[in-house]
Design goal:
By secondary structure, the chain is α/β, with parallel strands linked by helices. It has a single domain, classed as Rossmann fold (3-Layer(aba) Sandwich), CATH 3.40.50. Helix content is about 30%, strand content about 25%. It contains ten helices and twelve strands. The chain has helices at about 50-55, 80-85, 95, 105-110, 120-135, 150-160, 180-195, 210-215, 230-235, 240-250; strands at about 5-20, 20-35, 40, 65-70, 70-75, 85-90, 170, 200-205, 215-220, 225-230, 285-290, 295. It has an eight-stranded mixed β-sheet, with helices on both faces. Strands 2-1-4-5 form a four-stranded antiparallel β-sheet, with helices on one face. Helix 4 (about 105-110) packs parallel to helix 6 and helix 5 packs across helix 6 (about 150-160). The two termini are about 25 Å apart. About 40% of the residues are buried.
Length: about 300
């Protein structure tokens, strides 16, 4: 793990048993987040993006592999309170992630005081300042989620994730439930907040076109595996894996996940959908660096 990588996974595997079948949701993933930057994780629904994020957060225990935070192995997540303070998440739907029984103030106050006691007045000052950062006024403090718009609720969720100044925030499709105009404003806000605080983001989305605007490093995930990764512009402008090319072509709509039926678990998971497949694709390819920093797992390269 390099000093620039604040989070890193090594050969991470998260499997689930479903009836008699083993679902390899995350299957040997190496991922890194560079300090103060945005790493994007792209892939269609069902590819394992959220499972990977939840494993980093400690919601899922990996079967194999390691997770590192600031060079410390946190795979077993023994100090969960330390982890929660330093790594936070903003979910896709703010209406389901915010407790409908809590006012805005209660939601933020509970999170703020979860790690250390604060005098009420001090807490109110911190909450007001954080609301101002996400461009909301203190007039909403007594309101409940059903009394706010989708954009306002997502801003509250962002404020909640940042209120204890975490090092890392995972953004799990944070704009997909919003209209285009509101989504653009949220993206602009996130970029502003990152510049102000130097927070590291992991931005998860199926929309590779959106991720191009907001990321520094781009990872492409399919069926639990990383297919391609590298600097954003290299991957987007020169997509090498057929799946990355498909994502780029389908950037205007959400792809429907199609489960694979492979003759061998050792094969490339994209085998049955690949228009350029050849005999060697019956084995998962080794990683190749095709240009400086740009890596791909594909026999065609």
């Amino acid at each position: 793990m390099t000093s620039e990588h604040i989070v890193e996974t090594k050969n991470l595997k998260v499997y689930f048993k479903q009836r008699r079948q083993i679902i390899k949701a995350v299957d040997g993933v190496d991922l890194f987040l560079e300090r103060g930057s945005t790493t994007a994780l792209a892939g269609e629904s069902g590819c394992g993006k959220t499972t990977l994020a939840k494993a980093i957060l400690g919601f899922h225990q990996p079967q194999e592999g390691q997770i590192y935070f600031k060079a410390q192995d946190i795979t077993q997540h023994k100090n969960r309170m330390l982890l929660r303070k330093n790594i936070q998440i903003v979910f896709q739907n703010p209406f389901s992630s915010l407790d409908p029984r809590y006012s805005v103030f209660q939601s933020l106050y509970e999170t703020l005081t979860a790690f250390k006691p604060l005098a009420r007045r001090q807490a109110e000052e911190i909450i007001a300042a954080k609301l101002a950062e996400v461009e909301l006024g203190v007039d909403i403090l007594k309101r409940y989620p059903h009394q706010l718009s989708g954009g306002q609720n997502q801003r509250v969720a962002i404020a909640r994730s940042l209120i204890n100044n975490p090092s890392v925030v995972i953004l799990d499709e944070p704009t997909s439930s919003l209209d285009v105009t509101t989504a653009a404003k949220i993206i602009k806000l996130l970029m502003k907040l990152q510049e102000a605080h130097g927070t590291t983001f992991l931005f998860i989305s199926h929309n590779i076109k959106l991720l191009r605007k907001f990321s520094h490093v781009l990872f492409i995930m399919y069926c639990g595996k990383i297919m391609e990764y590298g600097p954003r512009d290299l991957v987007y402008n020169n997509p090498l894996h057929p799946y990355t090319q498909l994502l780029k072509e389908a950037a205007q709509h959400k792809l429907k996940y199609l489960g694979e039926s492979l003759s061998s678990s050792a094969a490339c998971p994209f085998l049955s959908r690949c228009p350029h497949k050849k005999d060697s694709c019956s084995q998962f390819p080794q990683i190749k660096e095709v240009e400086p920093g740009h890596f791909v797992f594909c026999h065609l390269c």
